[in-house]
Structure formats: C-alpha cells, structure tokens
Design brief:
With about 675 residues, the chain is of the alpha/beta class. Helix content is about 45%, strand content about 15%. It contains 26 helices and 20 strands. The strands form five sheets. It has a six-stranded parallel sheet with strand order 10-9-11-12-14-13, with helices on both faces. The protein has a five-stranded parallel sheet with strand order 1-2-3-7-6, with helices on both faces. Bound molecules: thiamine diphosphate.
Amino acid sequence: MTDAEKHTAMANAIRALAMDAVQTAKSGHPGLPMGAADIATVLFTRHLKFDPADPHWPDRDRFVLSAGHGSMLLYAVLFLLGYEDMTIEELKNFRQLGSRTPGHPEYGHASGVETTTGPLGQGIATAVGMALAERAMNAGFADEIVDHRTYVLASDGDLMEGLSQEAITLAGHLKLNRLIVLFDDNRITIDGDLALTDSTDQIARFKAAGWRTMSIDGHDREQIDAALEDARTSAQPTLIAARTTIGFGAPTKAGKSSAHGAPLGEEEIAGARKALDWPHEPFHIPADILDAWRIAGLRSRHARKEWKARLEALDAERRGEFERRMAGDLPVAVDGVIEKLKRDLASEPKTMATRKASELALERINPVLPEAIGGSADLTGSNNTRSTDLTILNAEDYGGRFLHYGIREHAMAAAMNGMALHGGLIPYSGTFLIFSDYCRPAIRLAALMGQRVIYVFTHDSIGLGEDGPTHQPVEHLAALRAIPNLTLYRPADTVETAECWQLALASRDGPSAIAPTRQNLDQLRLGFDEHNLCARGAYQLRAASVEAQISLFASGSEVQIAIQAAQRLEAEGHPARVVSVPSFELFAAQSASYRCETIGSAPLRIGIEAAIRQGWDQIIGDGGLFVGMTGFGASAPYQAVYEHFGITADAVVEQALARLSALNGED
Ligand SMILES: Cc1ncc(C[n+]2csc(CCOP(=O)(O)OP(=O)(O)O)c2C)c(N)n1
C-alpha cells in the first residue's frame, strides 16, 4: 500500500464505522464524520499528542469536537486508536442507554472525550479556556511540564453561533497561538446550502480578530498535514478552513443536507461501500488497517514517558504542587483563612454590601489559592472580583491571575468550563446576576459535566436600585435554581458570604453561583461559630421567645427584613423565628429530619425574597405567605423600590397579622 492508499483506507474506516453505527442506531449524523474523516486521520495519526494508555496525561494535546453532532467521528477514532474503554461493542451501541457513545459526546462517559459538546458554539469557546489554561499552567510550571496544544473541529453552525464571535475575539486578543481550529467548511447545514443563511467571509472574520488563517482542501492529506505543521509555528491562534464534502462517499447524498443528520439507508450505504472501495462487513476493520491505526496510537508513548521522567525529576515540592493542582485538591490553608476571617468579623462586625464581603473573602483566599483565576465581564469594580494581589493575565503575562474578559459573558462562562476541564485551575468570574442569562448555556454544561466553576453574580435584585428593571433580576434566582447540579448561594451578610465561598471552592463536582448585593447589609451573624452554617442550606438564625406562631424564611438581603419583622411581631405578642436560606440546593440535600426541624411547625410560614415565588413553596408550602416580586422592578433609589413593591418589615408584619387573623377565623 502506498502512503496515500493507506491514508484513504484509514479515513474510510472512520466513514464506514460512522455510517454503520448511525444505521444501526437508526439515528445520528453520518455526514460530518464522513466529510471530516481525512482531517481527523491526519490530525490524530501525525500531529495530536496523546496516549490511549494514559488518557488523562496532563500534557496531552486537547481535541474538542465542537460540532458535537458528529460524535461518531470521535468515537470511531478513539476505537481505532486503541482507547480501552471504546470497544467495537460501544460503537454498535451508539446512542443506546448506558453506552459510552451517547448521541453527542459527553464528558466523563469515555476517556478521550475532553468536553461535552452538542450545543453549537460551546466547543470552540470551551477550547479557548483550555488553550488559556495551558498558557497559565505553563507560566507556573514551564515548558518541561506544560507544553501542549488545543485542537478544535468546528462546523458552519459553530461559526454562525454568536458565542463563537466572543470566543474568537477573546482568543485573538490573548494571542492563544496554541489554539488551532479546523473548520469543516462544507457549506451545508440542516436547512440546506449555507448560501440560504450566511455570506460571511470566515477568513476575513478570523483575520480581523487577530488569527492566522489558511484555506485548504480538506480531503487532501498533504495539504492538511502542511497546514497543521504550519500552525504549530504561528504566533497567533490559527484557523484552517478545510473545504470538505459532507457525507463524502455517499453516492447520492454526498454534498447535500440529506447526509447531515439521518441514517443513509441500506442502499446508499451499499453504494458508499462501492464508491469508497470498502467491501468489508459492518463494524469489521481489516487487520492491516486497524494495525495502522493502533500503531498511530502509540506515537506519543515515548514523549509521555519522557514527560513523566521530567516530572519525577522536579523537586518534591514543585512536583507535589503540580500533582495537587491537577488532582483538584485545595490547599489546606483555605479553611484556615476562612476561619480567621470569620473570627475577625466576630470581633469587628462589618456593615457592607455582600459584593464587598465577597471581595473581603477573596482578599484572604487568593493569596493561598494559586490555582484561582479571577475575572469579570467588564464589571471588575462592580463585581469586586479582583483582590489586590492579583495581577492581570494577558498576552504579555500568562502568569497573571485576573482576566478582563471584556463584554463577553457567554464566552467567559464557556472559557471557564475549558479551564476547569483542563485541570490545575479554579476559574471564578463575575457579571451582574441579570446577565446570567447570557451565560446560561455554558452554566448548564458546567453543571452537566460536574465542573468546579464559580460565578459571582452581583447586583442580585431590585436592591440595585436606579439602573431599573432592565438590570434588576426577578426570575433569575429561580431560573438558576432550576439547573440541576448547580448550587446557588444568596448570602445574607459578611459571614455567610465567607462561608458560601468556602463551600463553592470545596464543591469539586459542580459549579456554584454566588449572588451578592450591591447595597449595604448589616452583619447578622455576630458571634463566632466554627461550623459553616451555610453548609446545610438553611438554618435557624433567630429563635422565637416561646413556641413560634410564625416562621420567617428569607435569603440574602431580605434576611434582615425578616429579622426586623420578627422583632415587631414578637413585640405584638406573636412569637416569630427566622430561618436564613442561603442555598435551596444544599437545604434540599439535608436529611428529612433536619429539614422538618428547620421548617418547623409554626402555623404561619412566610417566605421573603426580592424575586418571584417559584421554588419557595417547597419551604413555605402552598398555604405559605410570600413577600416578593410578581413582575418587573422599577428605576429608583433602592429603598424607594423596596417600599414601592412592599418588601419591607412593615409590609411583612401587616400581611402576617392579616393572615394570622384569617387563620384564627377573625374578620
Ligand atoms: C445551539 C444549537 N442550535 C441548533 C442545533 C441543532 N443543530 C445541530 S447541527 C446543526 C447545523 C448543522 O450544520 P453544520 O454546523 O454546518 O454541520 P454539518 O451539517 O456540516 O454537519 C444544527 C442547527 C445545535 N446542535 N445547537
């Protein structure tokens, strides 16, 4: 076999596995794997650095299939290269329950799947975070330990999504020259020819964002090889626009949208087998072709062994630090600084906005947590996410630890996913809570992938005041609470804020969102308690003098309203207790007995939160009284807005008394 014939056979192995797996599953996307098979073959057999025997090797190159619908491309390649957990059985079980081969690649299902993709645009933006993490870790540990690249395969759909614009401009600005995007330039989307919907000159677009660009024939192995070689020497991130034919080899469907997302059908597959000169049975790869792939899978074994020797040669402290960070273990000092902060706050209580309290916590945390990379989407001074010790991370200094993401909330959230997935870093960053909507698809993926990403969503309610209803979140707390595996914190004061930070950092298996206020709040927790009371999600902050008639539940800035209301109700002869609820999710995870005890048995339960009621019924019940928002806010100084919407201690007392009378059958 000539080299050219060998390449073609290896690429055809991908094509055959993809069309057969999709046909067997009776669903899936054969078009992209068949079209991009030549690109993948050259990339994985000649350029990508990885070792199937050690899929988590920290210095491996990362490969992100941004066009996640083409998952069979990745699964086929992983099988062919010899990743142990990607067996031929898994390919036969494509898209079946419990398989390692779900419809779209899902992080944690099979080794070699670096991130979950499927929502177009997410992969390329996540990869920006991976490429950034590589540079940040390189700045700390040098070339001998951290020296790899991030490759992306992106489709027309990826590049049409708005998120990709945020991502490519961020990568260009940061000069992430180890990011290489292979664009599967097939000019077909589901609805038909790309000309239906888009006229963008992608080369000009990427150039304008500071990328190096190339255009090649995506079926010419020499051109693919040369472009990838060239990209390695670039001082900028690289776009390789590779013109391909979707469904390459399919006799009537190649080049058409009909190849995109449905089984080709028996007849078409038979025709493709002929056209590709692939006479083999479904799922059968001839030994010589499989051997060629397996040999390619061994390509970087030596490099990995050399890397391991270099790691072992490091002094014990440095090596230990690298291994600790990659394992995601926190330094022991973190708990100590939080405890010290709580002691300081007990001896000198502070009235301040919880966004400021968050900064206070970061001032203590960041010096002992070198893996924390902070940031903000152009609201640094408002989000209070930059502690004084953090220098700027930019193209001139990847060793900085604070990133100005610009007004790119969505890419910020996606890049944080990439950093967390890369390992060695704990990304946190801020914007206004209202703009969590702009981050939401990436937050959802962080939750789905179980990544430790921390969002600081300040300006958490109508309490932000004058900016008005466009900036005042009302449904956002409920919307974030609806995302499984995301923990939302709404701390009530300085002490709770410190505790919420401690919990967010310790949460290794999922993202956290902290929602601090713009406005000042009194410190409510005055004594020192070594326990993290927020860890239980809700706890009694104020007891009633005798058996409570009323239980008041509140989060964040409304806890102080609850306390004032409880004091007045007590004064009027109605014993009232207050429960602070910093996190619904953590409370829901407590034992039934703790939840029962915390909810209590007072005949009247009142929830207070400057947001919509949704979600509160699980605490206050259907018959509970809710003091909050039912619509959008208003622009005015915050005290006036609270007054206007009736979220005050007076209003709570008035409603409580009215409800008590009704409960007691009085008029
Ligand atoms: C955010 C998002 N919107 C819509 C979809 C559904 N979808 C899957 S693939 C695709 C577009 C297909 O075109 P292209 O990206 O060029 O892929 P190709 O046809 O080349 O495989 C769409 C709209 C999606 N996966 N993600």
